[in-house]
Amino acid sequence: MFTHRIHNFNAGPAAIPLPVLKKAQEEFLNFAGTGMSVMEMSHRSKEFEAVLARAIDAVKTTLGVPDDYAIILVQGGASMQFSMVPMNLGIAGKKIDLIQTGAWTQKAYKEAKKHYEVNIVASTESENFMRLPTQAEYKLTPDAAYVHMCENNTIFGTEYNWLPDTKGVPLVSDMSSNIASRVIDVSKYGLIFAGAQKNLGPSGVTLVIVRKDLAERADKNLPSMMQYRTYIAENSLYNTPPTFGIYMLALTLEHIQETGGLKATEARNIAKADTLYGAIDGSNGFYRCPVHKADRSRMNVNYRIYKGDKADEELEKKFVKEAEAAGFAGLKGHRSVGGLRASIYNAVDQNSINELVKFMQDFARKNG
Ligand SMILES: *Cc1c(COP(=O)(O)O)cnc(C)c1O
Q1: Which domain range does residue 271 map to?
Q2: Rounded CA gap, 368 and 350, in Å?
């Protein structure tokens, strides 16, 4: 039992900035003088339409989305995009290219190959996905329908700090776990998608940014709810959207703007990641990060505890248990990788990192 807010290192759903939660709390019972919660009003009311407009506008200004891109909000999570992207952007007789970097691209591969031939451009599966394939390793299909990538591999802890050169083929990026954490150039992408529950708010909303001409590729006989053009034509109001999630997404992005935008956010994230990786690398081998240095994620920091030259699962279990009791949540690694993982999204502040480092140093002293 905690009577205060703890240090939240959950991988997703994850921490939401405290000022956002407080604002939502303040407006919870009576939104904008309507005498209702935002959850209790028609999605076609002028008050909700204003919320939706705020959300779209905040995405556009924060991420710098050019005018030839549509910004839409859908349901079904990032996982539904693994189907929706090939359904809409696939082209009969053409291959889809995919860069295999972990569990999320494996899932995207599984769905895409139900309808199309998928070429794996490069894969680091044989190295446990502990690094990202380089451009030199790519075997691109010259006329592929698109190239699929995952820009931050939440489970394995790798993140691109460069963008693949797809030789003119549209690039589709799963940015679920690093959206709005760094400055990006949207014009370099064909489509970006991201579930909201890591950096943009609660689960239930998925952001899709798609170049408008690409959304026109889809067969008009696809289910209406599976076509990007339906959401574009109806401004994400074809059916009842996840209204509360959209409201939270608007507040979260407005909070990013109020705290200096993406540039300042990125600088904070670099400092946080440097602090934590610095503590791991400076622990005389007690903590070790298995991820290739150049590909280390700023959002999901994977590490292990070593006894001699072997990772010690018992000690890791002890670490998680003691950390939880001390008010550090979510540090257990993903079940498919083991070890430890600290997810340090935008809403996790430098103070939480500093406190975690102190805890880690103390634990190493007692157990090293
Ligand atoms: C969390 C995550 C997903 C899955 O999101 P859902 O909303 O659960 O479908 C997909 N890709 C990445 C990179 C993720 O981090």
Answers
A1: 261-367
A2: 26
Task: Look up residue 169 and give its amino acid.
Answer: V
Considering the domain boundaries, does residue 145 fall inside one?
yes
C-beta 156 within 6 A of ligand 1 = no
The predicted pLDDT at position 1 comes to 79
CATH number at residue 349: 3.90.1150.10
Cβ–ligand 1 distance for 104 under 6 Å, the answer: yes
Residue 132 per-residue DSSP state: P
CATH number at residue 101: 3.40.640.10
Q: Do 208 and 338 fall within a single domain?
A: no
Structure tokens at 217: 């590729």
* Kind of pairing between the strands at 310-311 and 147-150: unpaired
Would you say the pTM of this structure is higher than 0.90? yes
Specify the pLDDT at position 350: 98
Residues of the chain short of pLDDT 70, as ranges, are none
Mutate to test the pocket of ligand 1, among 176, 198, 298 (most ligand atoms within 8 A of CB): 176
In this prediction, residue 65 carries a pLDDT of 98
Active site residue ranges: 104, 174, 198
